[in-house]
Design goal:
The protein folds into 2 domains: 145 residues, Four Helix Bundle (Hemerythrin (Met), subunit A) (Up-down Bundle), CATH 1.20.120.450; 62 residues, no CATH class. The mean pLDDT is 95. A two-stranded antiparallel sheet has the order 1-2. The chain is an all-alpha fold. The protein contains 8 helices and 2 strands; from the N terminus they run H-H-H-H-E-E-H-H-H-H.
């Protein structure tokens, strides 16, 4: 599972970089100030977050907390980097990916604890899938051609299971299982609803990621 997750995250890295590099430099798609699917976040915010999240995984593998300064430090780093020009943002993402993948290749103790920004502790072997999620979903959020229907089938299958379990855990006692209307949705659309990226008639917003 660990090798599969590292490979999945690495493939997501390369797909993101290929899509970014393939955009017309004259297009507005990667204008740092352009809004994205995440309310209040621009392209600059998202690309900076993707880069800093990669560095945060390296920090956790090194045995320290995910972000220096916790949640406030995370937010400050994103805001500080969001207004940089396009080339600087792309270079930052690329270099952070290289640092992370190099660290993965050298890491040995995958059972060691990793401290998330929330304070929760997970095993290091969970971090590659979490990184896969960050890159895959935020690639969609960027709005540069990637959609939920383009997510790899392996990732989609596992993420749906995890998000459905999380949704169930947040329901009142005794209520389990997704609403019938949600189960009628194709898997990509169901995940988009669970993650709060789409509104579905007849369903209350989920938005659990």
């Amino acid at each position: 599972m660990l090798n599969r997750d590292v490979e999945g995250a690495a493939a997501a890295h390369q797909r993101l970089l290929a899509d970014v590099d393939g955009l017309d430099p004259a297009s507005h798609d990667l204008d740092p100030s352009r809004p994205t699917a995440l309310a209040g976040w621009t392209v600059g915010h998202l690309l900076t977050h993707i880069a800093r999240q990669a560095d945060s995984v390296v920090r956790m593998l090194d045995g320290v907390s995910q972000y220096e300064g916790g949640a406030q430090g995370r937010s400050a780093e994103i805001e500080a980097g969001a207004t940089r020009e396009r080339h600087a943002l792309i270079t930052d993402v690329r270099m952070s990916i290289w640092r992370l993948e190099s660290r993965w290749a050298a890491h040995e103790n995958w059972e060691a604890p990793a401290i998330l920004v929330s304070g929760a502790v997970v095993a290091c072997h969970e971090l590659p899938f979490r990184r896969w999620r960050e890159v895959a979903i935020h690639h969609v959020d960027l709005g540069i051609g990637m959609g939920f229907e383009d997510l790899p089938s392996e990732y989609l299958r596992r993420e749906l299971r995890l998000m459905e379990m999380l949704w169930n855990s947040r329901q009142p006692m005794g209520l389990t299982g997704l609403p019938a209307r949600a189960l009628e949705l194709a898997p990509p659309q169901r995940l988009a609803w669970l993650m709060g990226r789409t509104v579905v008639e007849g369903l209350a917003p989920a938005g659990i990621y």
